[in-house]
Amino acid sequence: CIWFRNKDNVPLGIASLMRGIIARNDRQDALNRELEVQVQKLLACLAGAERIQKTPIPTCFTRHTSRLLFMWSNMMPFAIYPACGPLFTLPM
Fold it and tell me: For burial by CB atoms within 10 Å, which of 38, 67, 82, 89 has the most?
């Protein structure tokens, strides 16, 4: 498995191995057809996930997200102090 050693799209390689195993099966029944349909659905989901992964994120979005997470994580101890007390709001 050269694609696995080179790390060339491992999920796609695994899906092609699954299709090969299904194709080598001698019986051509409803189970094989259903397995092939499920692998096709898996590949469609994989293509959608890769499309989302390759979509560029605007710089202003990442900047605002990092600031929001910074504020949220630093204000959380003040928000949970009345419910949990000083034991669970120790600085880490």
Answer: 89
